[in-house]
Design brief:
Bound molecules: adenosine-5'-triphosphate, magnesium ion
Number of helices of chain A: 11
Largest sheet of chain B: 6 strands, mixed
Largest sheet of chain A: 11 strands, mixed
Largest interface: A-B, 25 and 32 residues
Number of strands of chain A: 23
Shape of chain A: globular
Structural class of chain B: alpha/beta
Radius of gyration of chain A: 22 Å
Strand content of chain A: 25-35%
Oligomer: heterodimer
Number of domains of chain A: 1
CATH superfamily of one domain in chain B: P-loop containing nucleotide triphosphate hydrolases
Strand content of chain B: 25-35%
Strand order of the largest sheet of chain B: 6-9-10-3-11-12
CATH architecture of one domain in chain B: 3-Layer(aba) Sandwich
CATH class of one domain in chain B: Alpha Beta
Structural class of chain A: alpha/beta
Distance between the termini of chain A: 5 Å
Shape of chain B: globular
Distance between the termini of chain B: 13 Å
Helix content of chain B: 25-40%
Amino acid sequence: MSSPQAVGDLVSQPYKYGFVTDIETEKIAKGLSEDVVRLISSKKEEPAFLLDFRLRAYRHWLTMVEPDWAALGYPSIDYQEIIYYAAPKQQAKKASLDEVDPKLLETFDKLGIPLSEQKRLSNVAVDAVFDSVSIATTYKEKLAEHGVIFCSISEAVKEHPELIEAYLGTVVPSNDNYFAALNSAVFSDGSFVFIPKGVECPMELSTYFRINSGDTGQFERTLIVAEEGASVSYLEGCTAPMFDTNQLHAAVVELVVLDDASIKYSTVQNWYAGDENGVGGIYNFVTKRGQCRGARSKISWTQVETGSAITWKYPSCVLQGADSVGEFYSVALTNNRQQADTGTKMIHVGPRTRSTIVSKGISAGHSANSYRGLVQIGPKAEGAKNYSQCDSMLIGDQAAANTYPYIRSQQPQAAVEHEASTCRISEDQLFYLQSRGIGFEEAVSMMVSGFCRDVFNQLPMEFAAEADKLLALKLEGSVG
Amino acid sequence: MIRPDAPVLLEIRDLHARVEAKAILKGVNLTIRAGEIHAVMGRNGSGKSTLSKVLAGHPSYTVTGGSVTYRGENLLELDPEIRARAGVFLGFQYPVEIPGVSNLEFLRVSTNARRVHRGEAELDTFEFEDLVRERLQVVQMDPAFLERSVNEGFSGGEKKRNEILQMALLEPLVAILDETDSGLDIDALRIVAGGVNHLATPDTATLLITHYQRLLDAITPDYVHVMAAGRILRTGGKELALELEQRGYDWVDAELAALEGADADRQPAEVA
Ligand SMILES: Nc1ncnc2c1ncn2[C@@H]1O[C@H](COP(=O)(O)OP(=O)(O)OP(=O)(O)O)[C@@H](O)[C@H]1O
Ligand SMILES: [Mg+2]
């Protein structure tokens, strides 16, 4: 019954998004070479500067080695066994949703992301990415009225090449790290957001990533630019079917904010995590970085990481502008054999820059959950301030939690504060709630969501409830 | 109030229980009727809290023999939350802290669980605010405690008041209060005792676990039981508590020795 064992069972819920959509797909042959990079670029009819960008990245990638410093263990990835491009056969993005393959619309319906007009979330525009391509973006016209560009990155390459050329790879250079280089060489699709000077984006923007093919890697690329005084709140969500092989997901996200601008970037990650023995699941190697280029600019990362077999992800902020602000709020839940090594980097360059880090790790089953964070205060960052708080919650006695906070300061006056705690859901706490009529599952989920509250409070309203539901879902199930 | 014709709420028969390999309850017998107030006293470690937790369904304790019937139903086969919804309440000797869970939210979810079980409508946040403010009067507690996490950073006495507040909201039929008086200052003791008296009705019963006469001065028990080595060794009226206050527990050893010498299965005297 309600033993610690049962708490473990509770978080091992069947994955609800594990279905595969049966749709004709155009795939290229597996394996990676310069020819494959050229093929991807030509399929996407890209301008020369982009092909050059890809080739430079590819050539650099060949000289790099896969990093092994994270507290992660996984068999080596055979990059020649992966397919680097897959797209549902209905080619060329449709002008109207009515022309989109109903099977695709149905897939997103099933995932709880209705794209068809009448069912849409009223204040959220959605870009839906299926395997390597964006299949639909809603509310484009309404956004265009405000000068906001929200489209797939492939479309942006065609329609706004000057913006892509000006910003792509300027925050995460193509040779930044092994996975970023790989992504730069073969990236498929993702979202592009541009908020012009002085515009407050009139609705939430959201991209939903769906991996469907079993042998395809997903290499999405997202770029968000907020000009002077602009602001936007953006959310990404992700799911994948259950396969007993591992799929590679190596994304790059770049954010640029100019003077007085702000970007709030939230992620609810629910990739397939593998089964209870650790078979299958997504390998999620992501480089996310934002650059606060302007004075008083602000970037806020909020992430709720519940899926993937392996998570390697450190959304970071480079705080260049004077008085700029970086924030990182994270909940990472691991269960079974899941491994997560996640955290952030706050690089303080400009004077009086401030950063806040709040990380909540929940580990259940035999999983391992590590926080890895770097706070770096450069010589010109007078008066810089950082506050970090890293809390871990253990469920059962087989799970592991680690915290690796690194602090490098070249400013003796900088105020850097770090707090950490570890707690375990105890049988007595659960019994206390039960003895007041609260069911076992609800008791666990009350405690977990209480633990995560500081982070959930940061999510856009429309999604806070969703995140709470997602954790509850991961925790839901029959007891004993 | 003793009424021989009042319905039996709780019937404990020859209850045995262990924690891990250690036998703790070794044949408890106790019958509680509606309207009655029972006090259970006894030395530290005699098994009083164990009895209360077994009744509430704590998973660490395994029942190895005997039965517990609650309003004609087998209590032991119900999950702890079902027992609570059905009206069995345990006020803990050591209430645990639950960081991050708001006290107000906790009280509301718990109250609604009991209400639904009784066939009443759930209260929304506004209706619940009204109810909880009214019940706060019973324990004279500051509403500020509602905004905090469950018991987190509460002083010993504040935790006990929070227990009585929960009791006031859940309106149990059988309330088991495990040393609710310990750690209370004199005023708080009076307030808590007042609360318990206020909540006791002819349809409900109370089982008070205590070490001190001063609580029994404020709440007059109908029966006083002395627990020793996992069973109820002696039962009497309120005068038994006064006698214990004077004589202490030395006599228990002699009686226990005699009992242990006798047939191991022999039942001690029981109530009602
Ligand atoms: N979880 C446990 N593990 C090991 N021993 C336990 C456990 N719970 C209770 N015991 C033991 O059972 C015996 C009875 O404990 P219990 O808490 O019921 O006593 P009590 O009568 O309530 O004492 P007190 O007056 O000090 O509160 C004690 O010897 C105690 O150490
Ligand atoms: Mg006790």
